[in-house]
Design goal:
Elements (H helix, E strand, L loop, with lengths): L3 H7 L7 H11 L5 H16 L4 H14 L7 H47 L4 H10 L8 E7 L9 H11 L8 E5 L2 E7 L3 H15 L3 E4 L8 H19 L5 E3 L5 H6 L2 H12 L10 H12 L4 H8 L3 H15 L6 H17 L7
Parallel strand pairs: 4-5
Antiparallel strand pairs: 1-3, 1-4, 2-3
Helix pairs in contact: 1-4, 2-5, 3-5, 4-5, 7-8, 11-15, 12-13, 12-15, 13-14
């Protein structure tokens, strides 16, 4: 075991004046002055900023106290005074140490938040971003992907669901290559693009923890700007899923690429919906029920029995609706030659929120 005098010697700077003060207190019975306590707090702050461990520093104080401990006549009173002085000194030292640590944590968190904001919005120059990223465990020369989770209520970083999800993921994977944060009430996970299992685990944990939350995963993109691209893809996937009413709890931007393409030319899409599905408005009850029938039919893989089950209809009733659609539009949903046009028009109706909104 290391000698206690060696320990106190190693931290001599942080014990400055402690032994002399203890000797004087033992002789006079006085308590530590305000200035002495302030000095101990300052030394505690300096020790924390230098990266020393609090446990070793407390041991060093106790070793120094042992070396300066009063002996001889009247030692009972001196011992009580010395004990009180040690208690005051160590408490003040620890207070300063903890205060410095809190300030350091706040500075680190502020730097981390600033870096994440710059990373997600492409600010600060790509080269500088790559340099700063290494401090937080990211190597932006690699491809990265971003998963974005949103739940019934906003996520708060380090609390509640966000903390639970982060702990579950970090308990399974290398923490050095994963970055968690919150943005606008959503929870984000940034991970290497070739480690898809990390984002899959994140998605599962986020969905389970919120009992209904939704997660979108952007495609892996290379370079410092890749994180921005993947993040924007994930956000677009969430927005698209909301507009289309997609029920999947986990969405991949790669699987939804067709929707932005279809939505790019709004006028052409409106013409298609109007020409193909417009006649459904002539049906009793309007276009809504028949449009919902088409959605269920296509979502069920054009299996009538499954579509009927989803709509809580008999197969006969569903078949009647499909025949009615054929009669009104001239397009047969069961005919492969007509199916693509009808399905594209149904997607367009979702994107344009028709018939709730006029084309």
């Amino acid at each position: 075991m290391r000698d206690r005098h060696d320990i106190s010697g190693q931290y001599e700077h942080y014990l400055d004046g402690f032994s002399d003060t203890l000797t004087e207190v033992a002789a006079t019975g006085r308590r530590l002055t305000r200035e002495e306590l302030k000095a101990r707090r300052t030394l505690g702050e300096q020790a924390a900023e230098a990266g020393h461990g609090l446990r070793a520093l407390v041991v060093a104080h106790l070793a120094a106290a042992r070396a300066a401990w009063p002996v001889g006549p009247g030692s009972a009173e001196s011992t009580l005074a010395a004990l009180a002085a040690v208690e005051q000194a160590v408490d003040a030292f620890a207070e300063g140490y903890e205060r410095a640590q809190r300030l350091t944590v706040r500075r680190e968190e502020a730097a981390r938040r600033e870096f994440i904001d710059d990373l997600l919005y492409g600010r600060g120059g790509l080269g500088r971003l790559a340099e700063r990223a290494e401090r937080f465990g990211l190597r932006l020369s690699r491809a990265h992907a971003v998963a974005v989770a949103e739940g019934p209520t906003a996520y708060v970083e380090g609390l509640g669901v966000a903390r639970t999800v982060e702990a579950a993921v970090l308990g399974r994977f290398d923490t050095r290559s994963i970055l968690f944060t919150t943005k606008h009430g959503r929870l984000l996970c940034i991970a290497p693009g070739d480690e898809d299992e990390i984002l899959t685990c994140f998605a599962q944990q986020a969905h389970t923890a919120t009992d209904g939350g939704r997660v979108a995963i952007g495609r892996a993109q290379p370079g410092p700007g890749g994180v921005v691209q993947s993040y924007e893809e994930a956000l677009a996937a969430l927005e698209m899923a909301g507009r289309l009413g997609l029920a999947d709890p986990v969405l991949r931007a790669a699987d939804l690429l067709v929707y932005p393409v279809l939505a790019r030319d709004r006028q052409a899409m409106a013409d298609l919906v109007s020409h193909t599905l417009g006649p459904l408005a002539e049906a009793r009850g309007g276009a809504g029920p028949l449009l919902e029938t088409l959605r269920a039919y296509f979502d069920a893989g054009c299996v009538a029995a499954e579509a009927a089950r989803r709509l809580s209809l008999s197969v006969r009733a569903l078949t009647y609706r499909l025949e009615r659609i054929h009669h009104l539009t001239g397009a047969n949903p069961a005919d492969p030659a007509h199916r693509y046009m009808l399905q594209t028009a149904v997607i367009g109706a979702r994107l344009l929120d028709w018939p709730n909104r006029p084309l």
